[in-house]
Write a structure and sequence with these properties.
binds (3S,4R)-3-hydroxy-2-oxopiperidin-4-yl beta-D-xylopyranoside, single chain, elongated, TIM Barrel, 14 helices, 5-stranded antiparallel sheet, 30% helix
Length: 453
């Protein structure tokens, strides 16, 4: 709703000719937040990251990845199955490309991931290996990959998803062959290959305080006590709408209190499709609360979304019926979630004017004689549109409408209400509709304030 008052004096009205009303500027249309997320994050000491697909890093996708984020994680390109599809044959093309893009855009890279039970090459998973062979395969893999990118990777997710939901160790190629030692060994080998990289253990469903996160906590504590190189904990944060754990900040804090950094490494918040405005608003609130929890703990150093656009998200393919999990829609328009992140980092909450805020009404006296006058009201829209309208005002000096055209006007006392005719309710973006009326006056004919609803 928007109220307008003209600035004309009674004297100018008495000159009596055309166009005595005022024209009004429209409210500016919605626009993206002025400050990129990476700058908002930097002001709070946080890197803001996204997972990326190397082949997409051009055009709008590349622009957003390069300008909004200060950290990139290859979504798949550094996984063992990607880099060594057959034994001894390496493919570093996509990983190299992402590292080069990051360097060109003054971004850090989170290396992801060295030791995992998933996305391993089939030669590795189908081979039959003695524990000694398995250990040297893993050591060589870590030495080769970490060594290749030495000095270029801010942090490595060295070990990914080692736990079951109940906090026991997941049964994997590594655990089954090497026992729990594989974790300390992998960290030690990674440190040797790149002493400057921060070394992380990363897992999902460890965002709140629960059995799994407590197992991770106990592991990190014991690794620290043994002097094993462990610098950080990654909370993946693949969350469901409305289910941000209430203990998230407390959980981040307890890891920080162990003397390690924390990163939110793979944030997305999925909803049952189709999306609607209520779900998108809830998602914005959820993103905001996750970012706020990280912002509240100094050692939460990086917050990374797992894909920034709904067109580059793993969610729809992995969780049937769910999607719309990222901060930009599939056409790269920032969603409410984007502004939720920005707001938690001290930035703009985004466009707040309702769509009708960009439509306005201008009241004009087009002619006036001793007992009567003709008035007109023009309704204009810019950055918004209307499918029906009502213009209301109160006459200030006893004026009385006698006749109206292109609208249905009623007057009760001083209150006038004019709604659209059957044929002119629609006001398109960039267009206008005008209606007119005759009215009586005596003494004075002040211009009223018109309200559009
Ligand atoms: C996902 C990728 O996004 C998908 O493209 C791929 O098909 C499967 O893996 N936890 C992780 C990530 O640590 O590596 C996973 O990425 C998502 C879950």
């Amino acid at each position: 709703m928007r109220s307008l008052r003209t600035g004309l004096s009674l004297g100018s009205l008495l000159t009596g000719i055309a166009a005595l009303g005022a024209l009004l500027a429209a409210t500016p249309a919605a626009h993206a937040a002025d400050t990129p997320l990476r700058d908002l994050g930097a002001a709070k000491g946080k890197a803001i990251g996204t997972a990326v697909t190397g082949s997409k890093l051009t055009g709008t996708y590349g622009d957003i990845a390069g300008t909004q984020f200060s950290s990139l994680t290859p979504g798949n390109a550094m996984k063992w199955g990607s880099v060594e599809p057959t034994q001894g044959n390496f493919n570093w093309a996509e990983a190299d490309q992402i590292v080069a893009f990051a360097q060109a855009h003054d971004q850090q890279v989170r290396g992801h991931t060295l030791v995992w039970h998933s996305q391993n090459p089939s030669w590795l998973t189908t081979g039959s290996w003695t524990p000694a062979q398995l250990g040297s395969l893993l050591q060589n893999h870590i030495g080769t990959e970490v060594g290749r990118y030495q000095g270029k990777i801010a942090a490595w997710d060295v070990v990914n998803e080692p736990f079951n939901e109940d906090g026991t160790y997941r049964s994997t190629l590594w655990y089954n062959g090497l026992g729990t030692d594989y974790i300390a060994d992998a960290l030690t080998w990674a440190r040797a290959a790149d002493p400057a990289a921060e070394l992380y253990i990363n897992d999902y469903n460890v965002e709140g305080v629960n059995a799994k996160s407590t197992a991770l906590y106990n592991l990190v504590k014991s690794l620290k006590q043994q002097g094993v190189p462990i610098d950080g904990v990654g909370l993946q944060a693949h969350l469901i709408l409305g289910q941000v754990p209430s203990t998230l900040q407390q959980n981040i804090q307890r890891f920080a209190d162990l003397g390690v950094d924390v990163a939110i490494t793979e944030l997305d918040i999925r909803m049952a499709l189709p999306a609607d405005s209520a779900k998108l608003a809830q998602q914005a609130a959820d993103y905001k609360s996750v970012v706020a929890a990280c912002a509240a703990v100094a050692r939460c150093v990086n917050l990374t979304v797992w894909g920034f656009t709904d067109s580059d998200s793993w969610v729809e393919g992995t969780f049937p019926g769910y999607g719309a999990a990222t901060p930009y829609d599939a056409n790269y328009a920032p969603k409410p979630a984007y502004y939720g992140i920005a707001e938690a980092l001290g930035g703009s909450g985004g466009p707040t004017d309702p769509p009708t805020g960009a439509c306005s009404a201008a009241y004009t006296v087009t002619s006036q004689w001793n007992t009567g006058f003709t008035g007109q009201v023009t309704i204009s829209c810019s950055g918004a549109s209307l499918s029906s309208w009502r213009a209301s005002w109160a006459f200030g000096a006893g004026q009385q409408i006698t006749q109206a055209w292109n609208a249905t006007c009623t007057q009760s006392g001083s209150a006038v209400s004019c709604s659209n005719a059957s044929y002119n309710g629609s006001v398109p973006d960039g267009g206008s509709v005008t209606f007119g009326f005759n009215a009586s006056w005596s003494g004075s004919n002040p211009l009223p304030t018109v309200t559009l609803t």
